[in-house]
Each structure stands twice: as C-alpha cells, then as structure tokens.
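Table S2 (text version). Query chain:
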Amino acid sequence: MKKKTLLFWINFWPPFLGSGIKVTSISPDFATIEVRMKLRFWNKNYVGTHFGGSLYAMTDPFFMLILIEKLGRDYIVWDKAASIRFIKPGKGTVYARFHISEEEILDLKNQVDLHGKIEPLFTVDILDEEKNCIASVEKKLYIKKKKDALS
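Corresponding structure-token output:
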C-alpha cells in the first residue's frame, strides 16, 4: 500500500480515531513510524491520566506493519503476544516511535531461512512531552515464509 494511502486510512481507523491516536509520520523507506496521542476526556482513566488500553492500542500494529512492508509478500507476519509495563502516569500528549533497521530486516530473513519460522521480540517506549518513559511495550511477532506456511 502506498504510504500516503496508509497514513490517511490508519488515522481514520475507528479504534485509533476513537482513542485519539494519530500516526504522525511514516519514513520514505517504511522503516520508521511515529505515533502520538493527546490526552482527551474520552481516553482518560478514572484518575485523569491516559487509559492503559489506549496506551497499548497506540503500539498495536506498527512493528507488524513495518515488517509486512519490508519483508514483502513472501512472508507471513503476525502479532503473537504483547505485554505492557506502566512506569508513570501519562499526562498530556504521549509519543511512540517504531523503527526496524535494514540490518535487522536482513537478520530476520536469514533467521527465517535457517529456522523456518521465528518469533522475534521488539520493544517500544511510550514517552511524554518531556521524553520521560511512561510505559514500555514488548511485542512478540511470528514470521514465516508463505511457501512454508502449510508445512
């Protein structure tokens, strides 16, 4: 999918639109995606800070999207598991930056070729406006070549 098309549609995807999550940029090589979420009355929790479910939602598909784009159509990529560790209350606007380097992409391809399937871990921190980490999310993905998917 073209970057501009994805950027337009993902920002109007109901779970993101409803949570106030906005993808602010996708790098030309699709290796980096940046996301922000402003604190609004509809994404606050009982004590007036960011709702944890919205914090997790802002990290949900992005490592998977980067890998689908970077690995190409010959690979299956799925989110398999995730965990979130809350570090401090999120107030104001929060940010997350997702990046997978070309070297990491090549390493993942080599690992899939060697092992048939892999389950790499990726971590992203959610930062506040002062660049303090308010939560850390670990994502486990599943990657396999499509031709091997039936075996």
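Notes on Table S2: The two ends are 28 Å apart (CA to CA). The longest strand covers residues 133-145.
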